[in-house]
Amino acid sequence: MTDQPDYKSTVFLPVTDFPMKAGLAQKEPAILARWEAMDLYGKLRERRKGRTRFILHDGPPYANGDIHMGHAMNKVLKDIIVRSQSLLGKDAPYVPGWDCHGLPIEWKIEEEYRKKKQNKDEVPAQEFRAQCRAYADKWVGVQKEQFKRLGVMGDWDDPYLTMKFDAEATIVGELLKFAESGQLYRGAKPVMWSPVEKTALAEAEVEYEDIVSTQIDVAFEIVEAPNAPELVGAHAVIWTTTPWTIPVNQALAYGPEVEYRLYQIGVAADTAPGVDVFNDPTVQALKGRKVLLANSNVLKGEFEERLRRYWPGACLNDLGDWTGKGSQLAGTVARHPMHALGGFFAKSRPFLAGDFVTTDAGTGLVHMAPDHGEDDFALCKAHGINPVFAVEGDGKYREDWLWLGGQGSVINAKFVSKDGPICTDLREAGGLLAASDDFRHSYPHSWRSKAKIIFRCTPQWFIPMDKPQDGVPVDVDGSFLPTPVIVGNGPTLRDVALDAIAHTRWVPERSTNRIRSMVEGRPDWVISRQRAWGVPIALYVHRKSGEYLVDNAVNSRIIEALKQGGADAWFGADHQALLGPDYDLADYEVVNDILDVWFDSGSTHAFTVEARYGDDVRADLYLEGSDQHRGWFQSSLLESCGTRGRAPYDAVLTHGFALDGQGRKMSKSLGNVVDPLKVIAESGSDILRVWVASTDYFDDVRIGKEVLAGSSDAYRKLRNTFRYLLGALSDFSEEEKLPVSQMPELERYMLHLLAELDAELRGVVDKAADNENWLEFSRYTRALMDFANSDLSAFFFDIRKDCLYCDAKSDPRRRAYRTVLDTLFHALVRYAAPIIPFTAEEVWQSRFPNEEESVHFLEWPEVDRHWVNHGLGEKWAEIRDQRDQVNEAIEPLRREKIVRSSLEADVAMGELVPVGDVDFAEVAIVARVEMGVGDGIIVKPSQWHKCGRCWRLLPEVKEDGALCDRCDEVLKA
Fold first, then answer.
1. Is the dihedral angle over the CA atoms 217, 222, 225, 229 positive or is it negative?
2. Nearest to 161 by CA among 67, 77, 62, 68
3. For the packed helices 676-683 and 125-149, what is the interaxial angle rounded to 10 degrees?
4. How far apart are CA 198 and CA 713, in angstroms?
5. Per-residue CA distances from 84 to 235, 266, 785, 854, 936 (Å)
6. How far apart are CA 508 and CA 653, in angstroms?
7. Residue 175 has pLDDT above 60, yes or no
8. Which pLDDT score is estimated for 850?
9. Alpha carbon of 101 to those of 110, 640, 679: distances in Å?
10. Contacts with 793 (C-beta within 8 Å, 6 or more apart), sequence order
11. How many CB atoms lie within 10 A of CB 740?
12. Residues 6+ apart with CB under 8 A from 73
């Protein structure tokens, strides 16, 4: 046949302007601008008003620098959850917030001072705080725009800031609740202290790094031993990796059940002839010296090794003079190796029994410096030995200290090294037995300055964890009244918190163990800081009694003052006016410490959730990284339990950290930082969001070029699914819809799959489903992507493209197909909206353009549960499996170009497929299928001719290019 007609114009091809190429980086800002212009967030609040509320309370990032990948991951995940809850029809507000006080911002301002060679201490405190406020305000503005660019929808016009005056007033109000209920005390005990930043630190502000320290063995001469007189004149040996604590030593600790033994320092038999390691007059006294340490071959061997490395040729001889239990050391007294200095150093050093003393390392004896260790402090306090506060806030010994006064800092490696002044003086005094700068161990550092920290005893304010609680106060109309709220689930703050943990849902469930163990073992909460930029500990302490003032009227005046003027209203206050006529300022000390920033952020539920939604309202969900078990999750828990007797949240989700493509921590020094802003500028936010939603974020996740390429590919496939749907539904109308009962089996099967998908996705989103996969959006995203790719593009669309292109527009099969496509469109665009909000908006507006409407106003699709048909599902699962086998059998012929497409293949199948009235040739997209013929699957080229319009090979087509009966009828109509 020649001059065959061109039937292309008669085929009903998809028609759409929706582009295949996304161009997200260029398109998203315009969509974002449209959302802002139409006040999308505000209108959504209006439409959801009165609905069940879902509150995800935002954990405040620090207002300091550009956002990083961790920020992006966290905010996107929150936005996905908030949008999905809104999709359920809930009122799901999102109030972003920022942590604005504290060291990171002070540190930045001080850096600017140092560049200008200014001394921060010479700048008026109010001026310094104003600069900190301006710095924080600047970065709030910068980060706000960066978070918005991620597609995060929220109340950006009214975020919460811990530095807003109302917030500062509420934080002080929360502090005063603790004060009024007796859950506050001031005491001197060792706390983690940063000499660089000159302030106490919370555990959450500390990170551990491996370092190499100086280790020393020091001899304390025993001068009294009532239960073991043989020990008098011998030297007790202690081992420490903090040589700087020796100048503050006040006692020695022993283990009551540990066995101790006397040894003698001598010259090893294998020492080279003529060599006397003790010929130095300053250490001559070491030769023959008896030393006391634990009777442990391991510890003895380790000490002898350290001794020999410091004094080559020295050894430790076992004379068998004395062996005894630690309990025999009771009453024993030693003297400090620097006793010749007199004063503090001339005082005797008692031996104290300590249950914490072990033979795991060291010598079995521990030197006690109550200023610089928790065990030291507790043991010495029990024996009436008090701290001496020898080390100042900057890490230097105070000027009047007899030994090394004014010197330091104690975290300076050279100062504490084996050649530094501490070791040099000890050596000259005959007290240094060994020293080396080679001890590798993990040590705490400030996560801000990266400098080493110390334990330092200073007067601080604490919230006790184990003080019995009779009740907590309530806030009645803004006036703090001592109305008791009996805490029924635990007598102490620790007990209340542990009970609250048990009644909170933790996602993933394993995170429960982490928060529980941290609360079980944590010390009292140190809430005071000796800095300038923060919320004041607004208390008055009576100079004689030492008690802080508790007065409702005074407290109300304090809070009102802070509402009007913020923290400066306290630091620059007329304190007599705040105290009122009933008290004399001369009788009171004004506390000028500031609060731990974790108390600030731990109080955000009060001035954000409760202030906006009601006093009895708590958040449905907190969501942050796993490090917040010791940070925000815990501080919020303790603050709320101490003031309300319950947790501030119903559920907590923990996610991991973003690592590079090789699973390494991102670091500028490694050059492996993946900048989210760069990813957005190059690929668009929706690509980044697909990555977040696809990851198993309960653990650490990886991101790099290859990972992002995979996210881009997944996004592209989903976009193409929407593009096909838009094209296939270009002229669809309500009149075309067909009832499900009149649909072919394939369409009913697809509705069955949609219903199953809907149930799976809803289980991830809807807490009411009580699904173990709640908030596991990697499962959600994977199911959605698999459905679009495998069930739709590779199966349903593939089979029905012939029907769409070539059936008559009024044909029931085509109408059924397009009816299902319309159902799929409405479902999929809603399912995808929380994950890819920009693209979902583009898709929706492409089909239903309306400047006043948005896809994000829509609610969860209506999916009929009656569509579920398990029998149909099982049948079609077998059909699909057989279809895959047929395609696999056709592929070799396609590669050999025996057939150009599956349409040109005839298939003979030995096994019968339970297809019923299903046209399996249509399902397999082949020319013909013969059932029950031969063994296995046999494929050969079809001898039938090809229809010139639909390209199917059919028996009625007499020659290639002629029309099949169907196409002929369509054209005639």
1. positive
2. 62
3. 30
4. 51
5. 71, 77, 17, 15, 48
6. 7
7. yes
8. 95
9. 14, 20, 30
10. 717, 720, 721, 724
11. 16
12. 655, 658, 692, 697, 701
- CA gap 636, 182 in Å, rounded: 19
Q: Give the separation between CA 265 and CA 316, rounded to whole angstroms.
A: 5
How would you class 79 by CB atoms within 10 Å of its CB: exposed for 0-12, middle for 13-18, buried for 19 or more?
buried
Q: List the one residue out of 890, 896, 895, 907 whose CA is nearest residue 944.
A: 907
Contact between 689 and 695 under an 8 Å Cβ cutoff? The reply is: no
Type and span of the H or E element at 517: helix 511-521
pLDDT exceeds cutoff 50 at 363: yes
Query: CA distances (Å), 378 to each of 326, 327, 390, 450, in order?
Result: 19, 19, 18, 29
Positive or negative, the Cα torsion across 97, 102, 103, 106? Answer: positive
Give per-residue burial for 271-286: e unless 16+ CB within 10 Å, then b. Answer: beeeeebbeeeebeeb
Q: Please give the average per-residue pLDDT across 414-426, as a whole number.
A: 91
What's the pLDDT band for 567 if we cut at 50, 70, 90? very high
* H or E, element range at 439: strand 432-446
The SS3 of residue 678 is helix
Tell me: the pLDDT tens digits for 663-710?
A: 888 877 788 888 999 999 999 999 999 999 999 988 888 888 999 999
Query: If we measure between CA atoms, which residue out of 267, 262, 317 comes closest to residue 291?
Result: 262
528 and 460 Cβ atoms separated by less than 8 Å: yes
Question: What is the distance between the alpha carbons of residues 68 and 521, in angstroms, rounded to a whole number?
Answer: 32
Q: What would the pLDDT profile of 452-467 be if each residue is shown by its tens digit?
A: 888 888 888 999 999 8
Distance CA 914, CA 920 (A): 10
Q: Residue 231 and residue 261: Cα distance in Å, rounded?
A: 10
Percent of the chain past pLDDT 70, that is, above it, reads: 95
Spell out a b/e string for 461-481, using b for 16 or more CB atoms within 10 Å of the CB, else e. bbbbbebebeebbebeeeebe
CA distance 180 to 166: 21
Residue 190 near residue 372 (C-beta atoms within 8 A): yes
Whose structure tokens read 């090979």? 953
Confidence check: pLDDT of 475 > 50? no
3-state secondary structure of 324: strand
**Strands 649-655, 505-507: pairing kind:** parallel
Look up tokens 């063994």; give the residue: 935
Among the listed residues 671, 675, 673, the one whose alpha carbon sits nearest the alpha carbon of residue 688: 675
pLDDT of the residue at 449: 79
The answer to whether 966 and 25 are in contact (CB under 8 A) is no
Provide the 10 A C-beta neighbour count for residue 616. Answer: 7
Give the list of residues 6+ apart from residue 611 with CB closer than 8 angstroms, or none. 166, 170
Q: How far apart are CA 222 and CA 331, in angstroms?
A: 11
Is the pLDDT at 775 greater than 50? The verdict is: yes
Tokens of 26: 């260029």
Omega within 30 of 0 (cis) for the link into 229: no
Distance CA(630)–CA(515), nearest Å, equals 7
